[in-house]
Amino acid sequence: MKTCKIAPYVAQNAPARTKQILKAINDQVLSYLKGYGIGAHGNPAKNDSQAARSRIAVLRDTRMPAVLLECLFIDNAKENELLRDQKFLDGLAKSIVKGLAVALGLKKKVTKPKPMYRVVVDDKEVMDTAYHSKILDEVLNGLEKKVNQISIKKLD
Fold this sequence. Notes:
alpha/beta; four-stranded mixed β-sheet
C-alpha cells in the first residue's frame, strides 16, 4: 500500500517569492492533515522537473507565482474516504486559504456583528432582524394597516 502524503510542487526555476507562498500553504495544509495521520512527502518544495520532467505546464508556463498541491491520493482507501467527506474537504480548503492569507500577509477582518431587533405588531412577534430596511418596511406596513401598537426591541 502506498504511503500517502502531501506533495507540493513549484516550477524548476521558480522565484523565491513563489517558494515562500508554497511554504506557507504547505505548512497550513500539513498542520490540518496531521490531525488525520497524513504527513509530508519527502522534499517540502519539489520542483516540477523532479515530478514530471518539467511537463507541468501550469507551473512552467506562467509569469505569476504558481503552486500545485497534491494533498491526497484516491488509490489509498483511507484518503479516498476522506475525499468523500464534505466536512474534511471544507477543512482542507480552509487550510489552503489560511496558508495563502499567511503568504500574502493578509489579516483576518474582524467585523462586529450587527445588533438584532425584534419587531412586534399588536402583541404578535413579526420578525427578528438586523436589517433596518426590513424594520422600516414593517413599521410602514403597520401604519398603512392602522395597527394599534408596533414595538421594536434590541436583542442581546
